[in-house]
Amino acid sequence: MPRLGTVVGVIVALVVIGLLLRWTFGHQRNLAVPTDDPDDPVATGLLTEVSRAPGAEAAGVLRDRLRAAGIRATVSRSDDGGYAVLVFPRDVGDAKVVLSGSPE
């Protein structure tokens, strides 16, 4: 049978570990909630719009053309009802060249 000192020591150790974990991985309620970037009017984060299409299917065709050329692209619905084709900033030049070419 374990001694009383051993049981108390284990309980104290668990409490200390629990408090350290709470302090380390707590909810951080004192931190400010991130707000939208005022320099990004369309709130697309790291992505840049390279084209706009009136419908989802047309935007999907443009996105697929970019992906076939090896450029990562995505589609986002715009506030005006259209669809924006978005790529990373380093791919903007290549994406514009691909999209300006004739359809294959």
Automatic annotation (TrEMBL):
Keywords: Membrane, Transmembrane, Transmembrane helix. The keyword Membrane applies. It comes from the Bacteria. The chain crosses the membrane at residues 6-25. This is Uncharacterized protein. It comes from Pseudonocardia ammonioxydans.
